[in-house]
Specification:
The protein is mainly α and about 210 residues long. The chain has eight helices and no strands. Helix 1 packs across helix 2, helix 1 packs across helix 3 and helix 7 crosses helix 8. The N and C termini lie far apart (about 105 Å).
Length: about 210
C-alpha cells in the first residue's frame, strides 16, 4: 500500500512540475510575441484546457479522430513553447510568423473546445436502441381484438314539405338564371333568390 502511494505521489509531483514549467514557457512565448499583462497568462491556460478536453474525449468517446487532432494541436503548442524557450529563439526579436500564430491561437482554441464539447458521441443512445430491438424481438404476438360491430349510419333527415306554388316560382327563377348564365342554378344561389332556409332550398332543388 505504501509503495503504491509513493508511486502515485511521485507521478503527481512530476505532473505538477511539468505543468508548471510548460505553463511558464507558454507565458514567456506569449509575452515575447506582444501579449502583455493578463493576456500572456491566459495563453497557457487556454492550451492546457484544450489539452485536457482532447484527452477527455480520447478517454470517453467512441470516435477519437477529433480528440487526436486537437490533442496533437495543443501538444504541439506546448512542446513548441518549451523548445523555443530553450535558447533556439531570440526572445527579444520574435519572428512575424510566431506573432501571427500567437495572435490567432484564441480562435483556434475556441473552435477546438467548441467542437470537442458539442459534438461528443452518444453511445448510450445506440445501446438503448439495441435493447429496444431485442425487447421487440422477444415480445410475444398480441392476439387480435374481436371485430367491433359496424356503427349504424344516422337516419336520414325527414323531407321538408315544400308548397307547390313555391316550387313553381323556383322553376321560373331557375329558368331565368339558366337563360342568363347558360348554366343550371345551384342550391346556394336558389336559396338566396328565394330567401328560404337551407333545408328547404335543398328540397326545392331536388324537385327542379
Amino acid at each position: 500500500m505504501r509503495a503504491h502511494l509513493a508511486r502515485v505521489d511521485a507521478v503527481l509531483v512530476q505532473a505538477v512540475i511539468a505543468a508548471a514549467l510548460s505553463f511558464a514557457h507558454l507565458h514567456d512565448i506569449a509575452s515575447a510575441a506582444g501579449q502583455a499583462g493578463w493576456k500572456a497568462w491566459a495563453y497557457p491556460i487556454s492550451v492546457d484546457l484544450l489539452l485536457v478536453a482532447a484527452w477527455r474525449r480520447l478517454r470517453t468517446g467512441d470516435t477519437k479522430a477529433a480528440g487526436w487532432c486537437w490533442f496533437v494541436v495543443a501538444l504541439t503548442a506546448s512542446l513548441g513553447a518549451n523548445v523555443a524557450t530553450a535558447g533556439l529563439l531570440d526572445m527579444h526579436q520574435v519572428p512575424a510568423w510566431l506573432r501571427i500564430l500567437v495572435a490567432g491561437w484564441p480562435a483556434v482554441a475556441f473552435l477546438g473546445g467548441t467542437l470537442l464539447a458539442h459534438t461528443a458521441p452518444k453511445p448510450q443512445a445506440d445501446t438503448d436502441e439495441r435493447v429496444i430491438e431485442n425487447q421487440e424481438d422477444d415480445t410475444e404476438p398480441v392476439p387480435e381484438a374481436p371485430a367491433q360491430p359496424a356503427v349504424e349510419a344516422p337516419p336520414e333527415r325527414p323531407a321538408v314539405p315544400v308548397p307547390a306554388a313555391l316550387v313553381e316560382h323556383a322553376r321560373k327563377v331557375a329558368a331565368v338564371h339558366h337563360a342568363r348564365t347558360g348554366a343550371p342554378i345551384d342550391t346556394p344561389t336558389l336559396r338566396t333568390r328565394l330567401g328560404v332556409p337551407a333545408p328547404m332550398a335543398e328540397a326545392i332543388a331536388a324537385q327542379l
